[in-house]
Amino acid sequence: MPAQKQITKPEEAGESSTSAAKKALTAASNGVPNYELPWVEKYRPVFLDDVVGNTETIDRLKIIAKEGNMPHVIISGMPGIGKTTSVLCLARQLLGDTYKEAVLELNASDERGIDVVRNRIKGFAQKKVTLPQGRHKLVILDEADSMTSGAQQALRRTMEIYSNTTRFAFACNQSNKIIEPLQSRCAILRYARLTDEQVVKRLLQIIEAEKVEYSDDGLAALVFSAEGDMRQAINNLQSTFAGFGFVSGDNVFKVVDSPHPIKVQAMLKACYEGNVDSALECLRELWDLGYSSHDIISTMFKVTKTIPTLSEHSKLEFIKEIGFTHMKILEGVQTLLQLSGCVARLCKLNMDPKRFEAASK
Hints:
Elements: H1 17-30, H2 39-42, H3 55-67, E1 73-76, H4 83-95, H5 99-102, E2 103-107, H6 114-126, E3 137-142, H7 149-161, E4 166-172, H8 180-185, E5 187-190, H9 196-210, H10 216-226, H11 230-244, H12 249-256, H13 261-272, H14 276-288, H15 293-306, H16 312-330, H17 336-349, H18 353-360
Parallel strand pairs: 1-4, 1-5, 2-3, 3-4
Helix pairs in contact: 3-4, 6-7, 9-10, 9-11, 10-11, 10-12, 11-12, 13-14, 13-15, 13-17, 14-17, 15-16, 16-17
Family: Belongs to the activator 1 small subunits family.
Organism: Colletotrichum abscissum
GO molecular function: ATP binding; ATP hydrolysis activity; DNA binding; DNA clamp loader activity
């Protein structure tokens, strides 16, 4: 007769039965210790009604979820606006309890070769799964624009053969990097960047839930640095709160580690007034802080759009010059000289042309 195992009561181990039950529940449900989840995952929408922005596109997905007959889809748009999240929400609403076994999620930037199509995707498509009436298995390919051309070509036949049982959803930043034969097989949904109001609304919900202390300029800094990317905004919020305990504008820009807009605005104001020495001094200060050419020129572009004292004509001229310099930087010429030339040209825009005529004589 086997010996009975001695059972240790939670009270004997120095913890309450309630806390022991909570730990057991957490371990059973997650299989991992109860560490703090990143807020991006903690507050990720579960249903389509919870997804922020792109109302028209989300409404189309809701109709698909209601009717159940999902086509192959390509969802394109900038990062952090809910492409993958909305597909996962759609899958949950379509498949219910069979979600885990009926969905294959792959990140195409890691698994982007032809072997993945031949082995994993084809094997999943052949697998028999008991699904609700009229539903299909779903393959979600995130960052599909990173897939090799060979892998995309191999998908063509797989999509045709298993279309009775399996549907494909591609999430990508640039739909033009998906080959034409795949595009013609899919419904293409384009997601727009989120508005500042939409980002602020979700951030305030998280701030209230997590009891985060913040200032208005801190919230504005989060929105400014995110540029419509909800994922980045939430990550920056969590990082700032974890690092400083208070979300202020200065703390956010320390975490984001991008040039402070106030310093960039002072430089652009000097350019507008034609004060070359002051503008170049501001630029040198930013450069000495270790910011890259790309960081500085990108912040110059963002700040130019938000300066209220600049006329529309001046904004257009400034953005044109900044754009040309950005193009040169992206081509590989990432020197202080390029930025100095840009600043000098911006200063020249509002200077009296007669000053240059006298200098040329």
